[in-house]
Design brief:
By secondary structure, this protein is α+β, with helices and mostly antiparallel strands. Helices cover 23% and strands 54% of the residues. The protein has a single domain, classed as SH3 type barrels, CATH 2.30.30. It has a five-stranded antiparallel beta sheet with strand order 4-3-2-1-5. A hairpin with a 2-residue loop joins strand 3 and strand 4.
């Protein structure tokens, strides 16, 4: 893994802060967790996604390295 790749992913997430996204996270053994939410916070090593779950807002964090290794896949909603 090159640092340039990680910084490129970090910059791309930062540019889309406030955007609605769908995140598909690999939970292992062919299980996936799919969440739709808004990128709220962007930190040096993680970013926070705000999702609505049973009429309450939750924050979930993901790391940029998970995006880079395809453990987490993120798609922008239009």
């Amino acid at each position: 893994m090159r640092m340039a790749d990680l910084s490129d992913v970090r910059k791309a997430v930062f540019r889309h802060r406030g955007s609605k996204v769908v995140v598909r996270a690999n939970k292992g053994r062919h299980k996936y967790d799919v969440n739709e939410g808004i990128i709220k916070e962007v930190y040096p090593y993680i970013f926070m996604l705000e999702i609505k779950d049973n009429d309450e807002n939750k924050m979930i964090s993901y790391s940029y390295s998970d995006l880079l290794t395809n453990d987490v896949q993120m798609t922008l909603c239009s």
